[in-house]
Specification:
This protein is α/β, with parallel strands linked by helices. Helices cover 37% and strands 14% of the residues. The chain has a single domain, classed as Flavodoxin domain (Rossmann fold, 3-Layer(aba) Sandwich). It has a five-stranded parallel sheet with strand order 2-1-3-4-5, with helices on both faces.
């Protein structure tokens, strides 16, 4: 792959010792060089209120977030599972980016989901709730391989680094597949980066 794609990574957890953030960083570190990642923080986004868009007074944080996502070629979502769904933090970011109506920053951006859980099922429900939103947002979501990282506390050391070679190879496969998915689905072909 001679083209470089810019990918926003959104992490749906604010916790200082977030397993989801640790896994996202490990995955990004295993990605092919054709993917240039930027972790876009979403913790300071005010809750979405359509009145502020209708009155042409969106908060500065919304504007900055939309401006950061708009030029990206693709999006990686890393999510924990809260109450069998997506955390409110991540859902709010999706809502902010999807408005005002007709100006969604998500439109046509290829996406992948990595869900993370200390439990055995690896955030399956959150993963699929997120994919349901992507259908409406017109984001081609990578279908396979799927990434459910269960029993995550046993896979990381005290510095947040993977201790499992099997998981490391799995994440490498996910990221290589994501690179191919982006290449096939990115709305605007990129020109090769110059060395």
């Amino acid at each position: 792959m001679s083209t470089q794609y810019h990918v926003a990574a959104l992490v749906g957890s604010l916790r200082k010792g977030s397993y989801t953030r640790m896994i996202a960083k490990e995955a990004i570190g295993l990605a092919p060089s054709a993917l240039a990642f930027e972790i876009v923080d979403i913790g300071d986004l005010p809750l979405y209120n359509q009145d502020l868009d209708d009155e042409k007074h969106p908060p500065a944080e919304w504007v900055a977030f939309r401006d950061r996502i708009r030029p990206m070629d693709a999006v990686l979502f890393a999510t924990p599972e809260y109450n069998r769904s997506v955390p409110g933090l991540l859902k709010n970011a999706i809502d902010v980016g999807s408005r005002p109506y007709g100006s969604s920053v998500w439109d046509k951006k290829p996406a992948a989901v990595i869900s993370v859980s200390p439990g055995a099922i690896g955030g399956f429900a959150a993963n699929h709730n997120l994919r349901q939103s992507m259908v409406f947002l017109n984001m081609p979501a990578m279908q396979a391989p799927e990434a459910y990282i269960g029993n995550v506390a046993k896979l990381l050391d005290s510095n947040g680094r993977l201790t499992s070679d099997t998981t490391r190879q799995f994440l490498r496969t996910i990221m290589e597949s994501f690179a191919s998915w982006i290449e096939r689905n990115a709305p605007t072909p990129r020109t090769p980066e110059r060395c």
